[in-house]
Structures
1.
Amino acid sequence: MTDRPLDFGDRADLEHLRRDFRAWLAGNPLPERGADEPAAVHLHRWHRMLHSGRWVGLDVPESYGGRGLTSLHQVAVSDELGARGAPGVPRIGYLAHVLLEFGSEEQRRRLLPRMLAGDDTWCQGFSEPGAGSDLAGLSTRADRAPEGRYIVNGQKLWTSYAQHSDLCLLLARTGDAASPHASLSAFVLPLDRPGVTVRPLRAANGDDEFCELFLDDVRLTESERIGAEGDGWALAMTTVAYERNALDTGHLPKYGRLVERLRRHAHERRGRLPDGLRSEIGRCVVDYQVLVAHARRRTAERLAGKTAGAESSVDKLLMTRAEQRLYETALKVFPEELHGEGGDVFGDYLYSRAASVYGGTSQIQRNIIAKRLLRLPAADRRD
Ligand SMILES: Cc1cc2nc3c(=O)[nH]c(=O)nc-3n(C[C@H](O)[C@H](O)[C@H](O)COP(=O)(O)OP(=O)(O)OC[C@H]3O[C@@H](n4cnc5c(N)ncnc54)[C@H](O)[C@@H]3O)c2cc1C
């Protein structure tokens, strides 16, 4: 089992890139996290270091601060990071794609270089207390005001890392709620704008990743709208399609290392491992191999110019299943790690529980696959 599952070793330019990156990493290791330093701040320092070596935004055109290479190059960098157990580049890849697809030329030139450099950190303000799966039903309004302005009122929920962010990709209703999908628009909201209140929430694992965002008479300008009025739904669906397709996160090598550890354990304990546990480890190995084969195919598709779409729901389901089964099994096999002794398995196990919720729940992914990929008829709702 390779520790670089997305190594397409047959291409010389990729091999050179990997070699250069490994040499850079040898001289620029992940900085140590300060005793009281929030994880997001530590990752932000790492992001800036990677950017100083030009290892962020490899697939973004040079005119917007990237390197003008392909998504395969970006995937190779994440693969190398994952192989070293280092955190990936903060997940800006999907936001960069959305700005490339929907932003005006002026917005791309102004926002992308700062996003890639980590000069501006971003969060995503889609979900609300009454609108998660039913995102099109959201209530936050951006009403037209004189002089090309908007006044925004509403509340967002589960906004990850808003307390450490400068800008928020905000989804709000600009038109008539009777046409829920057609009346949404997207904005880039500076979080220091008067009327914005960010309140962090403490999760069960002790992290304060989530925030509530309160928006009271917040003023935005037309130039802060991304895309045309009414483009919000298409923009949101593009955002989540890239988010659900997690090729460039460096997760695969991380899973691969744990799968290998389980496999070795099963081998060493042959005959002394309960049958149930042995077959669970077998399933983890199969899940992982399926995920790798699938990710390689998806990478090739991306290279051929295919943009992310409804197939990302398949990626998200496969990733969720593999990740949740892997950490559940690992905790049964290495129960000492339940208390965080000798590894991060317990923390990763806790976070894996959220995989079937964030970026759209597993039920919603199945609905998308049924409707948009399999074209199955909608359920009969007469009962
Ligand atoms: C770790 C994490 C990070 C997140 N970060 C962000 C963020 O940065 N920005 C952001 O905007 N949001 C974020 N979210 C929110 C996330 O997108 C929502 O939690 C998710 O979309 C589900 O919405 P909900 O929580 O309102 O659940 P609900 O939509 O209320 O769903 C409750 C249950 O009902 C089921 N359900 C609902 N509708 C259907 C249906 N039509 N068919 C079948 N089942 C259905 C769901 O599957 C779920 O099991 C984050 C969530 C998590 C867990």
2.
Amino acid sequence: MKAAVMVKHREALKIDELPNPKPGPDDVVLRVEACGICRSDWHAWQGDWAWVGISPDLPIVPGHEIGGVVEEVGSNVKKYRKGDAVTVPFHSACGHCEYCLQGRPNICENVVIFGLSTGYNGGYAQYVVVRNADFNLIRLPENVDTMAAAAIGCRYMTAFHGVVRAGGKPGEWVAVHGAGGVGLSAVQIAAALGKNVIAVDIDQAKLEKAKQEGAVAVVNAKRDKVPEAIKEITKGGAHASIEALGVRETTLNSVLSLRRGGRHVQVGLTTKEEGGMISLPVDLFVALEAEFVGSFGNPHPDYAGLLALMSQGKLNPKSLISREVALEEVNDVFKAMSEYKTMGFNVITRF
Ligand SMILES: NC(=O)c1ccc[n+]([C@@H]2O[C@H](COP(=O)([O-])OP(=O)(O)OC[C@H]3O[C@@H](n4cnc5c(N)ncnc54)[C@H](O)[C@@H]3O)[C@@H](O)[C@H]2O)c1
Ligand SMILES: [Zn+2]
Ligand SMILES: [Zn+2]
């Protein structure tokens, strides 16, 4: 099969021929129809995240935003058969640890992630193995196609969980810092769920897109002081704030734009610059009774609600796809990501 292989950090992925994968007894092989290019793949390509224990052995095939069709099933797999259209959360879970049993398999203690865990190749390829398939695969309703399925493999479903983690009531102010793949998704979802959304970015075109997706106000972080602008718009600060990039500036802007009792939701993961550590105004957290909430992926049980909203047309991840690319173009997309030049989702659809 054809695949894009990461051989060395920060060097062009190699378009190569690999043997077609075979499923283990609990696995399936998917034929990949669409695979999104997430900034987490870019982080892996940079060699980030050793500080959280993520440093897969190379070579590896990246890609964890997968929509596809079941090609081959392992002998123990009961729920799926060849031809089923599916998506799969980026975090493959064991199904039996304490957290899986609590309905939180996104924080499974035996988690493996496509392209980010040693030996677990991802979807920048014609075929991909999904482990523990009966537990991890998500069947698609008839009117949700593989392009939408790719988005809900990572960034859109992550944003859905982030908005859930932000909590609060309809009509509250939610600021979203970074209007990229995760951020525009969070804007669309929070707006659909009745929040007043403020989008923040450094790129006016992305802010215009955020308005189309339901943001009632936007702040250009290149032009304006973000906390002041948000406090002015909201008359006191955001009730909740979603960080959707992972750098010091956006994290601090998010925290400093909260109102009393506000919730900061950290979705972005940091770069080499921060190395996982960002100083925070802890006294302010105490005095305002603010909260710092981490948000990782989306628990498998919450897909039912997400898919129901998509199926009824109330959520539309496909409107955030700006570009379909060929496997060979993945290096161009990584380069564009280094310069914040991608809009929404770039998705590989030609293999
Ligand atoms: N927690 C999770 O489960 C999870 C899941 C998916 C992605 N992520 C992480 O989320 C982050 C975002 O990923 P993505 O694919 O959406 O990235 P992206 O590149 O699509 O979006 C980032 C956005 O930030 C904007 N930006 C750059 N500098 C800014 C600034 N100073 N102020 C405001 N905006 C600025 C860019 O213009 C871009 O629109 C990454 O760190 C990724 O690894 C986390
Ligand atoms: Zn588990
Ligand atoms: Zn991702």
3.
Amino acid sequence: MARRVLTDHFFLKAKAQGYVARSAFKLLEIQQRFRVVKSGAHVLDIGCAPGAWLQVACQSLSKKGGFVLGLDIQPCATPKQFCDHRVHTLQADAREVRAAELVSMLPVQSETASAGPRGFHVVLSDMCHNTVGNSAADVVRSMELARSAAALAVGEDGADGEEPDAGKVQPKKLHEGGPAGSQEWPGVLLPGGHFVVKLLQGTGSQEFALQLQRHFTKVSWVQPKATRQESREIYLVGLNRRL
Ligand SMILES: C[S@@+](CC[C@H](N)C(=O)[O-])C[C@H]1O[C@@H](n2cnc3c(N)ncnc32)[C@H](O)[C@@H]1O
């Protein structure tokens, strides 16, 4: 491992505290600021390997209830520390997996007797590809992954360029029917739910943020302290999915 990595403050802190990656501190900071994962929540963590966000998500559930589903294109074992039986992983490509498949993995006992809405309270995406050293191409690929995450969360990939009117930020009606066929909304994220997505700043990122504003009552840009100084990586946090 490179010396720069071995002496990195957040790498050492992660190792000392039992997190499998320094990225844990990014979600911890987001969690501290926005409390996106609440006790008992259903969390979908897209791009979960090696599992540091799974650890933070599970810690944030408190003792009882809740469910965390991690999805990654690579195999990802559930980290032993901080994760328990409520954490599950699935190896799949987020650009291809279907929302209904993810919703069907929610525990049956979480379904209420009145067949209340099934879905996730939080969708996190820390997905990134291996950068190719060409920043324009990297931005394009990161936007593709961010849009895939948005498509799973709210059923829209943020690709259409129509700008929202600041005065009327109504969500667009995109498709009829939810992931399990009974909901009134597309995507796996429940109304009132939160969305965190990583992207590389560049062409298309502002438009993507504007698209998210249609779906969330508040959208914030966040660059956690654990982000490497030279990185163009940034997170968008969308709070309270609109009905
Ligand atoms: C920075 S890592 C995530 C770190 C993770 N949040 C953690 O804290 O351990 C990015 C992950 O995105 C995954 N990824 C990239 N493209 C993907 C895709 N199309 N579908 C699912 N996962 C993908 C990579 O395999 C990689 O594990």
